[in-house]
Amino acid sequence: MDRAILQKWLKAGYMEKDVFHETTDGTPQGGIISPALANVALDGLEQVLKGKYPKWARPKSLGGKYAAVNFIRYADDFIVTSKSKELLEGEIKPLIEQFLRERGLELSPTKTVITHVEQGFDFLGQNVRKYPHGKLLTKPSKKNIKTFLEGILKNHQSRTGLACRRIDQ
Question: Are 10 and 23 in contact (CB under 8 A)?
Fold first, then answer.
């Protein structure tokens, strides 16, 4: 990416409700350039993982078993899957951290979770979980459901003027 154009874009500011806001540091939360920059920064990570763990890879750390490393990315969110928690913790996570560090980035400690698919995980507002008998289900995450229901409750209160109490309180 042309650094001069990128620098101008980052300093260009933004308009909100006919008011200009200067941009002095970083990108605005939810700004249109954030996903574009994330894609530029993360380009190459999938190739690094595929280079180190091709489909036929049988790392010694797995006792010669297939690594089955997969990379799924959407803008600045990504997941990496493997057959081994030890491989993810001991080799893949440090590899990703090094890749990001070279670009001035780091993994978010609060968002970085290594878990078994049977425990489930949230990705892009969805919960992905493998249930007994091999059923893999994707459904809205609890956080998204809660936000949705709170929005309905707030909308109902403003239209009716009634005060409602949340059920879980």
Answer: yes
The answer on pLDDT for 17 being more than 70 is yes
CA distance 68 to 3: 37
| 150 Cβ neighbours under 8 A, 6+ residues apart | 166
Q: What is the 3-state secondary structure (H, E, C) of 75-98?
A: CCEEEEECCCHHHHHHHHHHHHHH
**Tell me, what's the pLDDT at 98?**
95
- pLDDT higher for 114 or 166? 114
Q: Which residues contact 74 (CB under 8 A, 6 or more apart)?
A: 124
Residue 66 CB contacts under 8 Å (≥ 6 apart), including other chains:
55, 56, 57, 58, 83
Cα atoms found within 13 Å of the Cα of residue 90, Cβ hemisphere only? 9
Q: Among 39, 109, 52, which residue's Cα sits nearest to residue 78? A: 39
